[in-house]
Amino acid sequence: MMLTIAFIHCNSKELSIIKLPDANTTTPTTTSSSVYVVAPPQEGQSAQLPNEEASLDCGPSLPWYDLRCWDQLRNRSLSCETDLGGVGSVETVCELSNSIITLSNNSIIVGNGTLEILSNVSLSCASSGCALIILLSGELHLGSNSSIVGGTLTIQASKVHLSINSTLNTTAFSGSPPAQTSGTPSGLEGAGGGHGGRGASCEKDEGKDQGDTWGGDTYAWTSLNHPWSYGSKGGMTTISNTTTTPDVGGGLGGGRVSLTVLGTLNLNGTIEANGGSVWEEKRGGSSGGGSGGSIIIKAAQM
Question: Is residue 209 part of a domain?
């Protein structure tokens, strides 16, 4: 069975497609995007991501955490009632019903139970690069029109259910791109940010070659089969660089989502890591859109 996944960086006009062969392999036939679905482990194998290091790493903002890390991180976990304003416990069932639950810093939720985010509830760490780690032995349920928002979302659970219009969303909440790289265009042409591909340019100059009119550069090519990089900010324009307008540049890049489900992922909502638009972010001007971030999905069944 062939699975085709498209990841569109709408604002920088990038379209990338990966075609995956049978589930027994983790090698895509086309590696031109920052979206990847990892084949589920076979019976008797450990549920580990490709190229995982043998040494234990429990640092912040990882795409996957060894079970031994859960014990280390458990004493830093937010509590259901005191910290999240919910009812119950993350060791049994934690139910969140407050409409907006705002986290101001990187946060961790670790428990043996199930987390239920009811309809129209938002659990949000909505700032650039803010990381939310959710590690559950039980299940994660998102009700209709509910959301989990942040710069980096790492989620591990036995089952995950996203109801209609629910979302895991890191759009326009990128942190910094990898060291010594940048997909943000130079100049004042308002070009799109780069990442898995070059960003688009709106400039029309017949005197220039096409290669001179692209937007932001590509980066993270060595890890396209296991993406974990933020998207990049779009370029600025002369409008956004005037003395009367703050130098905000283009839309921000997309964040990162890693979803590991040992059982079934029921996806009736959306998982997003889009680049931001200057209009969506209410910045005005005509600067370039940011590039999309990274999404990893690992599930035994979808």
Answer: no
User: Do residues 266 and 162 touch, judged by C-beta distance below 8 A?
Assistant: yes
Q: Is residue 45 part of a domain?
A: no
Burial of 111 from C-beta contacts in 10 A (0-12 / 13-18 / 19+): buried
Non-local (6+) Cβ contacts of 250 within 8 A are: 184, 185, 190, 192, 193, 233, 234, 235, 236, 240, 278, 287, 288, 289, 290
| pLDDT tens, position by position, 64-85 | 999 999 999 999 999 999 999 9
Please return the burial class of 105, using the count of CB atoms within 10 Å of its CB with bins 0-12, 13-18 and 19+.
exposed
Q: Is residue 48 assigned to a domain?
A: no
Structural domain includes residue 70: no
Residue 226 belongs to what domain range?
Answer: 3-39+76-198+215-301
Instruction: Tell whether the model's pLDDT for residue 6 goes beyond 50.
Output: no
| 180 contacts 222 by C-beta, under 8 angstroms | no
Residue type, 270: T
| Residues making up the chain, counted from first to last | 302
Q: Which of 62-66, 199-203, 240-244, 254-258 has the lowest mean pLDDT?
A: 240-244
Q: How many CA atoms lie within 13 A of 280 on its CB side?
A: 16
Q: What is the pLDDT of residues 43-55, one digit of tens each?
A: 444 444 444 444 6
What the block records as the tokens of 214 is 């692209």
Q: What pLDDT band is residue 24 in, cutting at 50, 70 and 90? A: very low
Per the structure, the count of domains in the chain is 1
